[in-house]
Please model this.
Amino acid sequence: MTTTEQATLADRLAAVWADFDARLEQVPVLHRLAQGTVTLDDYKRLLFNLRQQVVDGSPWISRAASNFDIAHFELRTAAISHAQEEHRDYLMIERDYVAVGGTLEELRAGRKNIGSEALSGYMFTYADRPNPVGLLGAMFIIEGLGAQRAAGWARRFQEVLGLADSQVRFMIYHQEADAEHTGNLEAILSSGLIDEEAADEIVRCAEVVARLYVLQLEELDR
Amino acid sequence: MVITMSSQATAYLTGFGRYLPGPPVDNDGIAPRLGGDDRVTDRIRRRVLEENGIRTRHYALDEHGEPTELNEELAVKALRTALDDRGIDAEDLRMLACATTMGDALVPGFGSMVHGRLGGGPMQVLTAQGVCASSLAALDAAAAKIRLGDHPRAAVVGSELPSRSLRQSRFDGASARMDAHFLRWMLSDGAGAVVLEFQPHPTKPSLRLDWVQHVSLAHDHPVVMRSGMEGLDPVVGRTWQDVDIATAAAEGMFVLRQDISVLDALAEAGIRQFEHLVDTGMIDMRRLDHVVCHYSTNRFRDLAFDGIRRRIPTLDTDRWYSNLETRGNTGTASIFIALEEAWHDGRFAPGETVLLAVPESARFSFAFAHLTVVAPPSMQATPTEGS
Model:
């Protein structure tokens, strides 16, 4: 593995991110958020929809962990601890949802939207593969979103809707938690564990997850 | 773009309700209910009524003086009208703050009893036990939880049912001078409630709660209003809980009394608190549009006017609101009953400010709340306003 190849993976992921970021701006709810026309109902719908997919976060990472063989011990270790950290994340969404006037009953009776179905289905299928190294690309997108966008969204929701910190805990928390995760991810990506074939898988997985994540945000309640 | 880091939500009053039991009772209807129709008592009553200026009030007593309702029932009925006014149910509440001077029972707390009767789901309950100013203490506590984002919706109720203990049986054989007559012919029953939320009412105007200030000067003042103790000083072994109930009753411990000699000092202290709020910029006199004030008798209104005129010679007394004369003095309920009537009468317009003022004589407490009328979000010019 040469430094040129590592830079190439980073460049390729940066290109995926740029495309993802541009698509996010076009998502109706995020557009309204930027414009300052977002409503409390928009925020509740967003939490409601995210929750239905976030409950699957820890399970797909765990499944991936169980499919890393001993030759991929480092990735198995990373996946196990990451799954543990994500395990109770959905409870934070539930608290935020209740804090803005929703009920646990309606939230827990909800189902995944079209985009969440596709995203979750893809993640579990991918995690079933032997040594699903490509999932590092999924993490790059999802954790990057948390680290680079979630807290800004939280502040903007607070600004427009007059929300207290305790009503946007999930999004604020993810800035710190996911920044730590992306740090770990960058260490793995530059650790020499990633060969050219794995790099292709990672980029492809990042492209698919980026598209499906946007779909999840576009298809709120559908 | 400069992003303002706002860590707190805002509390809005979005629903207003009240409940006054039975028909309005005029001054001639008091004696049939509370008794005290001997010649001496009759003369004292007329004198007290003349001074307090109350013309009609409500009692949860029938025409023979028999109780018709519990205090917790008054509270729940006021809460239901406030919830209906907002268009929500008890199930939508996450907190209930109840203010009263005396609940129906000694235990459990009044708030628990009101929640039990109101229903709804699990919620935080607070009982603010005190006298008149406990109304705004309850409002302040609920508003603080709304601002923290801990609860999206809360209800606050002030509720009083003093009439049953103002009946003749409490006074038979007990020494009762002016200190007892003053309150006996002044207090009456009722409940007032508001709904608090972290968002304004979606389609109707709301009152944004800007701040609540509540100060006790008990460190510097003896007891003024009392029940359950012998004199003005609490003494070990000499409260109603220490002596036989029969002894306590014979000594008149269950009579609600007020030391009326210090009431002018109370008015002065209240005006000083008000001036302090003006001096520190909490109240901008150029932008204060309405004052809703609780006071026990019209004489205090006149003292307050005189005091405020020292600051604003052009005081427009039409901006001063009270419904003491028609709804009576209902203690902790008064300020919410007055606010409800002023609100639904359409006295307030968007953009205007309202000061609630509640002096409490019991041991010198003063509570103020500052509100601003806000239009519903759909009618506001800029969507980011209020952030």
User: Anything to note?
Assistant: Residues 382-387 of chain B have pLDDT under 50 and may be disordered.
